[in-house]
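Hey,

Quick one before I head out. I ran the complex with protoporphyrin IX containing FE overnight. Inputs first:
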Amino acid sequence: MTRLRGTAFSSTTDPGRALITGRCNDIGTIVMQQFRGLAARAPYFSNGSARDLRELVDFYDRRFNIQYSEQEKQDLVAFLGAL
Ligand code: HEM
């Protein structure tokens, strides 16, 4: 959020739901995809930054400092791949 002559405005490369509703409050809000059939639609995230489910799990593990064990990562990848 930035201010120019007292007017607040947002700067984004991804208007999200605002593209449909035209509402400022909807800038940046997105509609989540369903997880069904996830394995068939790599890459993941709206910017395609995770090439496969393992990269997605590794991302969350780092981002939220979850500290999954190798076994837990493999189990989660297998679970996500089975949806
Ligand atoms: C280990 C825990 C998590 C797993 C396994 C997980 C899994 C996923 C998956 C499979 C997707 C869809 C990717 C796609 O279809 O391209 C996704 C997207 C997303 N997740 Fe999570 N998620 C987790 C935790 C979280 C948390 C804690 C948050 C919020 C703080 C979150 C917020 C989001 C958002 C906003 C998206 C859409 C991002 C985008 O498309 O760019 N997730 N997640």
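The chain has two domains: 1-31, 34-83.

Talk tomorrow,
K.
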